[in-house]
From TrEMBL:
Record-linked PANTHER family: ET TRANSLATION PRODUCT-RELATED, UNC93-LIKE PROTEIN C922.05C
Source organism of the structure: Dimargaris verticillata
Keyword S-adenosyl-L-methionine attributed: no
Name of the molecule in the record: Major facilitator superfamily domain-containing protein
Topology of the protein relative to the lipid bilayer: Multi-pass membrane protein
């Protein structure tokens, strides 16, 4: 699962991770990402049922193939400059994102024992986040000019090849019923129970107090993507510096995922609630520090050089590049923590395997809604300053709500089973 995620995400990093999909104008990339966000949000409402109906293997084949079509649309665009296929396949990729998120998250939550969940989450995100290094190296290898602002065609072909490899690996997935946990217990399978029951469970997720409290956090958990890529990265750095920033971002993300997993599994002196609050506080501090720093840097830099142009983009060889690259290292560390931590919280707050897929689809809906709203702001040419401030405020609100979830729903191992059952019903 992690290797499939590596290939699909590496293709994304190689093309869209450099900002603007490597094109001179970032508008098409923003429109394609907006289509993907809307589709993944709507798809998240039914992704749980669809994943159960198709099964793990077929769901992952379909999801990976959507990435192949999306990358192929950029190859087509290079020859005929037709934007419609890019936007349409962007929507297909959004549906694939929803399926991928549900299937991979369910397997990460159901396959390990409770004591191993932090380790499995961190290992998955470690491998998955190495995609940023792979994608960044592809961008850097084929676009090493110090003045280039667009990607070469070879980059798009390479990205398409990676997604084709992910389809091949999806074909090789073994059925979940053949797997056992480390303690020899069978993996809890997600059984398709009919569309009426699946729809009822999906609707029920919207009435869960736990998920309602988590909604603002998931709304914020991908909001930052538009600002980081199409605003900060695209407007300040040239192509090869963006590739370097992606590599640093991914390296930092891999390291933080391992540290998070180790802390969540081995901080035996801390209760689950204390561990959750410590991580929430860490996220809050890094969010405030990094976005405040980014705002100060971009305002000072743009005030110094005036209107941005191709010749004024920052190159990795310049001393001024150190500041944005350090900011990207912090954002990379945040990325894996922000996205793996709520899964750990969710596994502690609910023990109902059949509801997990629908809970994840619900979370994907809000995550995609936030991402879509952020891409709308970017498409509307909202200023870098305003995008930064909106991202900061949304992130802080999300942190506040997950702190409430941790305080209210996470129980210590000594808490009696009756209280735990009451929490799960909520």
């Amino acid at each position: 699962m992690a290797l499939i995620s590596l290939c699909t995400n590496a293709s994304w990093y190689a093309v869209l991770g450099v900002g603007g999909a490597g094109l001179m104008d970032s508008t098409l990339a923003a429109q394609a990402n907006l289509a993907a966000a809307i589709a993944s949000g709507l798809g998240g409402l039914v992704a749980g049922g669809v994943a159960k109906y198709l099964g793990v293997r077929c769901a992952m084949i379909a999801a990976s193939a959507s990435y192949t079509l999306f990358m192929g649309s950029f190859v087509l665009y290079a020859y005929c400059a037709e934007p419609i296929p890019v936007i349409l396949t962007g929507a297909l990729r959004g549906l694939g994102m929803a399926l991928t998120f549900v299937v991979q998250s369910v397997m990460m939550m159901q396959y390990p024992t409770v004591a191993q969940q932090g380790r499995y989450l961190s290992t998955f995100f470690f491998i998955s986040q190495s995609s940023g290094i792979v994608g960044g190296l592809i961008s850097l290898a084929f676009n090493s000019s110090d003045v280039a602002r667009t990607l070469g065609l070879t980059t798009y072909y390479s990205a398409m090849g990676l997604t084709a490899l992910s389809v091949g690996m999806a074909v090789l997935l073994v059925p979940p019923h053949t797997l056992t946990r480390a303690d020899d217990t069978p993996v809890a399978l997600l059984q398709f129970t009919g569309w009426s029951k699946e729809v009822t469970r999906s609707v029920g997720s919207f009435c869960s107090p736990l998920l309602l409290f988590l909604a603002p956090y998931f709304l914020a958990s991908r909001w930052y993507t538009a600002y980081q890529l199409n605003s900060f990265n695209f407007n300040l750095l040239n192509i090869r510096t963006r590739a370097v920033s992606n590599i640093l971002y991914a390296t930092s993300s891999m390291a933080s995922s391992l540290l998070l997993g180790y802390y969540l599994d081995h901080a035996k002196g801390h209760s689950q609630r204390v561990r959750g609050l410590v991580v929430t506080g860490l996220i809050t501090g890094l969010v405030v520090g990094s976005y405040t720093g980014a705002l100060v840097f971009q305002e000072q830099f743009l005030a110094t050089i005036g209107a941005t142009s191709e010749t004024q983009l920052i190159d990795v060889t310049q001393p001024v590049a150190a500041a944005p690259l350090i900011i990207y290292v912090i954002w990379g560390a945040l990325d894996s923590v922000v996205n793996s931590f709520p899964l750990w919280v969710l596994t502690r707050a609910t023990r109902q395997p059949q509801a997990v897929a629908h809970h994840l689809g619900y979370c994907m809906f809000y995550q995609s809604a936030g991402l879509a709203a952020a891409w709308v702001l970017d498409s509307a040419r909202v200023s870098m300053r305003d995008q930064n401030l909106v991202t900061l405020v949304v992130s802080l609100v999300g942190c506040g709500f997950i702190a409430v979830v941790v305080q209210r729903y996470l129980v210590s191992p000594t808490t009696d089973q009756a209280k735990r059952n009451n929490m799960e019903k909520a």
